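#structure-requests
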Amino acid sequence: MIKTTIYAALLVFALSLSCNGDRSGDSINTCRNWQLFIDDYWIADSANVTATLHRPQKHPDNPLIRGDAPWQQNPYCFGSVIYDEEDSLFKIWYMSYNYGLPVADRTPVLYATSADGIHWKRPHLGLIEFQGSTDNNIVLTNYGHHDLYSPSVIKDGGDPDPARRYKMIWWDFPLGDEGYRDDGMCVAFSPDGIRWTKYPGNPVLHANKSDRSAMSCP
């Protein structure tokens, strides 16, 4: 019998099994929750199908976002990409590490959009000044004490407050430049993913200096 690689059939088959019965007492309802099929945990039985891991192919035009502006000298992977179904757009929030610039200009958070995830448009937002001009795509900067790191963004359609539709979390030094005293995880909120308001109680999580560099709530 010839084995055929049929991913769609495997997915539908597995979901139908999960929806029609309780798997060994598990309480997760896969009809309402997406499951990542990395193994056979959710599959009760199968025949004539096989899972194949495909090697990703790098796009020939990489890098798709380049360091071609004074405020975007070295774009980092730190950030988030979402597909906004409401706007039918891919949206990316990312950072750049601008070597040799003052700390306030060194690690801006930037914003771009794409219809296909390949060709990205960098809007001229006119929001935050960089070297005397607001003609850039900067949406957020650090507190001026230290570099910021790892901005991550989600769109929360369930929040009843439209001013908090988008939520960002990142590492920063809102209270000064002393590590393990003034730094921690910070959050900000936005109605559109472009105009952000930093939470006045930042940081919301501090770092305790220990052999494990553990996080703790203030």
